[in-house]
């Protein structure tokens, strides 16, 4: 969806749109025939794998942060006993 909302998409596809300069319309049939670049399945798999690894890294760091917060809490309690 982001792709077709870009200004560059409309500037590129604007020459086939109907209407005046200020009120161009792209009809549904014309729109559905427009080429839209998408990554290959191999690229999509690699992107998915990258984001899975990124999620795992975020989760691991969040756990580490939670443990450090608990450790800090423990040290503060010992400090004021």
UniProtKB/TrEMBL annotation:
GO terms for biological process: DNA restriction-modification system. Keywords: DNA-binding, Endonuclease, Hydrolase, Nuclease, Restriction system. Coiled coil: none annotated. Residues 18-69 form the Type I restriction modification DNA specificity domain. The keyword Nuclease applies. One of its GO terms (molecular function) is DNA binding. Belongs to the type-I restriction system S methylase family. This is Restriction endonuclease S subunit. It comes from Fructobacillus pseudoficulneus.
